[in-house]
Write a structure and sequence with these properties.
52 residues; alpha+beta; two-stranded antiparallel sheet; 54% helix
Length: 52
């Protein structure tokens, strides 16, 4: 299933936080994504969203 736009937006913000080494911000966004029923898996080519 496709993630809703707000989950994708949070994942994009999290990716930018990781790129700027804002680990705390990235962790907060990961929790936000999880609270919406999704998990984010990081990889070399970015991230992948999966439903919980």
């Amino acid at each position: 299933p496709d993630a809703p736009p707000e989950v994708i937006a949070a994942a994009e913000k999290r990716q930018m936080a990781r790129e700027s080494q804002d680990w705390e911000g990235a962790d907060i966004l990961r929790e936000e994504i999880k609270n919406q029923g999704w998990t984010v898996k990081d990889g070399q080519d970015g991230y992948e969203l999966k439903p919980l």
